């Protein structure tokens, strides 16, 4: 694990208290509650941190380029932008296949818009990640422009606000989105009406961003996953 992350780790909040708050929120939303055996996301005594701001920003920028290719940005222009912004070594294999050769499901790529919204929240550029509200319609304004000069990426990085998310708050939101992901999928399977305009797949994409951004450390946690290796199966 990155030593800089270890240096910033704090004691995670009581997972049982966080889960009680999550269940209250699920009840307010009117969705199914997970069964009592649904696992806690961390254990008492575990520690928590948020990935460095630059890591969050670079990941958000890569998603922006990926989505721009989905929307018609020529692949050569996308690859040149990533090269000049010094981001090529951070692009996942799955992303590179789509950016370089349009290999992959465009519908799955399109879901990354909600993952980008989750990262925008982590960066402090969006006020909330309310599951009842659709993603920000200002993502193209909040994130760097892959259609423009890649030199502008450094300027965007320098304009980002300082750290604004408390790791405990981010962990609590992760717990909520893990349970929401379960609840929405179960609701869809049983034909329950969705409580708002955000579909289950978008809830899962936001959870993806939170699972990647929030770093937990304890006896049952391994190293933070790469973007393509985030596990949403539980």
Automatic annotation (TrEMBL):
<protein>
    <recommendedName>
        <fullName>DUF4272 domain-containing protein</fullName>
    </recommendedName>
</protein>
<dbReference type="InterPro" id="IPR025368">
    <property type="entry name" value="DUF4272"/>
</dbReference>
<dbReference type="Pfam" id="PF14094">
    <property type="entry name" value="DUF4272"/>
</dbReference>
């Amino acid at each position: 694990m990155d030593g800089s992350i270890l240096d910033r780790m704090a004691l995670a909040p009581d997972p049982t208290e966080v889960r009680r708050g999550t269940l209250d929120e699920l009840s307010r939303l009117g969705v199914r509650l997970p069964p009592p055996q649904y696992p806690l996301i961390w254990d008492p005594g575990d520690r928590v941190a948020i990935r460095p701001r630059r890591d969050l920003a670079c990941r958000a920028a890569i998603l922006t380029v990926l989505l721009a290719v989905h929307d018609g940005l020529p692949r050569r222009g996308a690859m040149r932008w990533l090269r000049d912004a010094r981001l090529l070594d951070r692009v996942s294999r799955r992303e590179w296949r789509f950016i370089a050769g349009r290999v992959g499901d465009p519908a799955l790529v399109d879901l990354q818009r909600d993952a980008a919204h989750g990262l925008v929240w982590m960066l402090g550029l969006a006020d909330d990640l309310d599951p009842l509200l659709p993603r920000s319609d200002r993502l193209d304004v909040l994130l760097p422009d892959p259609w423009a000069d890649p030199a502008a990426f450094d300027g965007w990085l320098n304009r980002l606000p300082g750290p604004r998310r408390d790791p405990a708050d981010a962990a609590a939101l992760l717990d909520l989105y893990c349970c929401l992901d379960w609840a929405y999928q179960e609701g869809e399977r049983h034909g329950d009406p969705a409580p708002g305009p955000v579909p289950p797949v978008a809830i899962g994409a936001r959870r993806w961003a939170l699972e990647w951004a929030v770093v937990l450390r304890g006896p049952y946690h391994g190293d933070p996953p790469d973007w393509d290796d985030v596990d949403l199966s539980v």
